[in-house]
Amino acid sequence: MDRINDAAFVKHQYATAHNLNTRISIHDKYSTNKMGFGNWIVSNYKIDKGANVLEIGCGTGDMWKNREALIGGCSKLILSDFSEGMLSSARDNIGNHDNIEYRVLDIQEIPYHDAAFDVVIANMMLYHVPDIDKGLAEVRRVLRKDGHFYCATYGEHGIIEYLSKILFAYGVKDTVNKNFTLQNGYEILGKFFSKVEKLEYIDSLAVTNIDDMVDYIYSLSSMVSLSSVPRQEIRDILKNNTADNILNVPKEYGMFIAS
Question: Global pTM?
Answer without folding.
Answer: 0.86
